[in-house]
């Protein structure tokens, strides 16, 4: 089995070729960072136009890197949501067109399922497993029971973790995207200098909250002497924020392990996925939690945590293997929860 995967749901134009033996034969990612940087965040219209301009060339390059022709493909998978709908449409239309022209099966992939299944591409991970999904738009703990079978245990009641990193970066004048910049700066900082809250720590369940932490970062900056934030102060704030965030996530994940184990006593794998899973401090903290609970932590290499086409191709392979293909009239979805039956989080305004 060889599948072409296409990803265009946010600000990465990506295509990859992956085979059924878990070999990544090509993985091309074009980041739009420079197009969006002047605006301090992703501008949907600019993203859609950039995907349209670049996707054909990126697909061509992936096929060339893999050294295969259309006839050797078993199918094409494209992210069909959730995400910025203009970009998602570009990827879906391109995927469908290739399938139509070459008589191939089409797989409409949920972007979050791409993140969720990446660990099965990079490591030997069997169902069921506990998944911490931390990205720019999502912060959830889920039981992964199988392809297309997810049960949400907890979610954020306000911001996603990646959003909190991005906003902290913006307040510190670090620019966009913020997560990697905060991580780089935090390495040089003193994580004990400023007190920061660990939102939800000690509470039952495994929901998250990050808005209080974000407010504390703002108040800490405002309490500094007037004038631009010095490099040393910025590093200390980044370090304190990152330590608090990692601590809060560790606490929530420990509770989730107990919830997960109550139903799957024999299961032993904790997977972390999504862009923020690239963060080394978070991975270290999660590894301690996993060790303390007799669990194994699986964290894909950072380049496969942030958005890429290989995760979409792999989800396509998993789906194709189960006969889960989609019609060419499949409609792109701006919203598409992994667990449609999940109750709303504890507070109003919670994200799905
Ligand atoms: O999964 P992803 O690439 O896109 C979405 O589906 O959202 O995640 C992007 C998010 C951004 O908020 C970015 O700042 C964050 O992941 N991120 C990081 C790191 N690398 C990316 N956050 C913290 N540390 C990192 N090293
Ligand atoms: Zn993502």
Description of the molecule:
With 352 residues, the protein is an alpha/beta fold. It folds into 2 domains: 135 residues, ATPase, nucleotide binding domain (Nucleotidyltransferase, domain 5, 2-Layer Sandwich), CATH 3.30.420.40; 174 residues, ATPase, nucleotide binding domain (Nucleotidyltransferase, domain 5), CATH 3.30.420. The strands form 2 sheets. It has a 5-stranded mixed β-sheet with strand order 3-2-1-4-5, sandwiched between helices. Helix 6 crosses helix 8. The chain is globular, with a radius of gyration of 20 Å. It starts with a strand and ends in a 31-residue tail after the last helix. The C terminus is likely disordered. Bound molecules: 5'-O-[(R)-(carboxyoxy)(hydroxy)phosphoryl]adenosine and zinc ion (ZN). The site of zinc ion has 6 residues, from helix 4. 5'-O-[(R)-(carboxyoxy)(hydroxy)phosphoryl]adenosine binds next to helix 5 and helix 6.
What keyword list fits this structure?
single chain; 352 residues; alpha/beta; 2 domains; 10 strands; disordered C terminus; binds 5'-O-[(R)-(carboxyoxy)(hydroxy)phosphoryl]adenosine; binds zinc ion
């Amino acid at each position: 089995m060889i599948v072409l995967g296409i990803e265009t749901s946010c600000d990465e134009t990506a295509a990859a070729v992956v085979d059924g033996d878990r070999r990544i034969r090509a993985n091309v990612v074009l980041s739009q960072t420079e197009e969006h940087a002047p605006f301090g965040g992703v501008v949907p219209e600019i993203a859609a136009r950039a995907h349209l301009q670049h996707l054909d060339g990126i697909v061509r390059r992936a096929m060339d890197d893999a050294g295969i022709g259309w006839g050797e493909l078993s199918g094409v998978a494209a992210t069909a949501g959730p995400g910025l709908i203009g970009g998602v449409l570009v990827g879906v239309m391109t995927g469908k067109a290739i399938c139509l022209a070459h008589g191939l099966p089409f797989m409409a992939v949920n972007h979050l399922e791409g993140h969720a299944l990446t660990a099965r591409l990079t490591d030997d991970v069997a169902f069921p497993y506990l998944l911490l999904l931390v990205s720019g738009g999502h912060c959830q703990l889920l039981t992964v029971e199988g392809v297309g079978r997810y049960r949400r245990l907890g979610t954020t009641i306000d911001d996603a973790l990646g959003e909190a990193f991005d906003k902290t970066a913006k307040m510190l004048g670090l620019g966009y995207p913020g997560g990697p910049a905060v991580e780089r700066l935090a390495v040089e900082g003193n994580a004990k200098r400023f007190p920061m809250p660990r939102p939800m720590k000690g509470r039952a369940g495994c929901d998250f909250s990050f808005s209080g932490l974000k407010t504390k970062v703002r108040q800490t900056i405002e309490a500094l002497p007037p004038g631009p934030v010095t490099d040393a102060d910025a590093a200390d704030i980044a370090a304190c924020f990152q330590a608090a965030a990692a601590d809060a996530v560790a606490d929530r994940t420990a509770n989730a392990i107990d919830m997960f184990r109550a139903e799957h006593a024999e299961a032993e794998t904790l997977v972390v996925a999504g862009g923020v899973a690239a963060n080394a401090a978070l991975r270290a903290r999660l590894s301690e939690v996993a060790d303390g609970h007799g669990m194994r932590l699986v964290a894909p290499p950072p380049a496969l945590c942030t958005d890429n086409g290989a995760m979409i191709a792999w989800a396509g392979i998993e789906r194709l293997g189960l006969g889960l293909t989609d019609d060419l009239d499949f409609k792109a979805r701006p919203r598409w929860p992994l667990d449609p039956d999940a109750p709303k989080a504890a507070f109003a305004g919670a994200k799905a």
